[in-house]
Amino acid sequence: MAVTMNDVARAAGVSLKTVSNVLNNYEFIKPATRQKVLDAIAELGYEANLTARSLRSGKSRMLGLVVSDLSVPYYAELASRLMTVAAARDYRVLVEQSAATRANELTALQGSLSQLTDGLLFTPLVLDADAIAAARRGTKPLVMLGEHIDDPRFDQVTMKNVGAAKAMTAHLLAGGRRRIAVIGASPGDGAGSPGLRLAGYREALAEAGVAFDPALIVPAEWRRDGGASAVARLLDGGQPFDAVFGLNDALALGAMHELLLRGVRVPEDAAVAGFDDIDEARFSSPSLTTVAPGMNEIAERCVQLLIDRIEGSEKADSGVHVEAQFELRIRASAPADRVSQLPQTGTSPASASAAEGKVDP
Amino acid sequence: MAVTMNDVARAAGVSLKTVSNVLNNYEFIKPATRQKVLDAIAELGYEANLTARSLRSGKSRMLGLVVSDLSVPYYAELASRLMTVAAARDYRVLVEQSAATRANELTALQGSLSQLTDGLLFTPLVLDADAIAAARRGTKPLVMLGEHIDDPRFDQVTMKNVGAAKAMTAHLLAGGRRRIAVIGASPGDGAGSPGLRLAGYREALAEAGVAFDPALIVPAEWRRDGGASAVARLLDGGQPFDAVFGLNDALALGAMHELLLRGVRVPEDAAVAGFDDIDEARFSSPSLTTVAPGMNEIAERCVQLLIDRIEGSEKADSGVHVEAQFELRIRASAPADRVSQLPQTGTSPASASAAEGKVDP
DNA sequence: CTGAAAGCGCTTACAG
DNA sequence: CTGAAAGCGCTTACAG
What we know:
CATH topology of the largest domain in chain A: Rossmann fold
Strand order of the largest sheet of chain A: 2-1-3-4-5-11
Number of helices of chain A: 15
Mean pLDDT of chain A: 90
Largest interface: A-B, 52 and 52 residues
Oligomer: homodimer
Low-confidence stretches of chain A: 340-361
Helix content of chain A: 40-55%
Structural class of chain A: alpha/beta
């Protein structure tokens, strides 16, 4: 029913191979022959059957993207950009959600997703480098996204977690904050985004001569509700603090929501900072100070790296590691200068018993 | 290199067809034969080549999803759910972004997306029913999402736009609001989400005996920044209002951000309501009153309808139309009772000159 | 520069 | 219940 290459060949009076040559931009074709073929294609409305091409050539021009949950704003924004960047090189992106479970991450690596695609952009959250190396079958390219893995065996595109968290912490310290709670990590975390960002926090504290207090490090699921309940626990525990650093924006926004609900003023009683600079951060009330981790650069570099591996133009023997540049976005939730925000009031540490809220958005 | 059906057939001592029969759950196979085949599959680690299956059978077990922009929270949350629902029926979802341009919507309908998938979930924003009917090639099933199209030729899954907007407006009126600004529509809008939601708003006003004032209807791009700038124009125009109904949550959240920035108290000076109930709405400050449009139901019904069309179990001659049930989510930005919020202050209409902001989150 | 043939790995009539 | 053969629509060596 659909028009095939055979129909085109017949209409143009050439062989199948010649049509294929034209479609694949083979260079040594007589202009007249090429034109005959192009005319026939246009006249018949021929479109190549991608499935047949894929079966024969072994290439699908699809990239797989594995994230835990596409409804997480950071992943949604990343996926959207990845699709746009990939489309510019004539690739599609096929997304798979892992729900951050071991079984699903293994399936993503071994199952039909990798069969359907030419390579994978993988954000592992539970599998470690050895598990991934062991699970991997075949030789299709694999680029790691995020910071859970840091291993010379793998190509990897990340953000400057340590440096960015350090810069943000330094910003809060410069604003006069001394008891900065961290939401989304455990004191002992070493690897992955939580551990790296916590390390940056500690470096900044050390340079400023501020003691590290493990009581200020509050574990939480990296979602808005996780941030909210972490702050609730912090306030209920009576631990004084004058700033909250959510290790991603969802945590920070959830934290800010709970603070305001409890009557803690932001930024007067407690500054709030996040990490990711999702679109929502600009429009929260107060707007959220956060780290812009260079998402555009991440999207471009990882698609480019993966396609270069697929097409063989990137030949490095060991893993290529790319780190995107970050920027701080200073907004109302944690302004540069604490004093200028509060000409008359002065500062008081936040607590569960803070008075009626008053917010400067 | 990969294990093929032929290898399995040889190992099991049966023909290719028998292996195929086992894989496709053909019922009349001797248990012993089936077991031999299953053993061989397990031993060799055979996995069916989906591309070959797709080429031969003409079915890919992929659904196409066309939205304007996957980074829009509503679409991200919808896509995430669609994937989960589809996966339960052993289908994948391939997403394409149209950027709400005519050219891209046509491409999505005619191009390689429809070739790669067994059917399309399509959210048209610029194409109308006739254009879609004309552009459509072949006979692959197509289910419309959203309200831009309402045409008996097409299957369609929508929300109760009119009823939900009417209920929300009635809620605002019941709270004592009389000058309710609408963000995201033009006074003349008739069709699509803006027109339908505006119609619900007008019905509620009429039933309450409140006059419709076109000066309160403010057009805007359906994004956070659109909501913010629409409110800025409204305030700058000096038009008094005591509530803002953003026709989606992004608009409402952007509007709320701008109100608070200008010192307009929410909900004291102006209540704010939205539409969609994205996750963010629960965690804004104040939390956002909005319409939950039944996204789970929408996701389930549209995937089910599309797959039933693909597999032939849905045989209706004309378009099947499904409307999901909605619920109001009453939160702090527009509580049920205005007076209880303000025991001592009373009400004053918002204006650009409103005094220093004070927010009850 | 172009053609005739083989084959990617399945499913699908068609026999038996 | 199972087998041998054809064919989905391409690309890829191999000739010439």
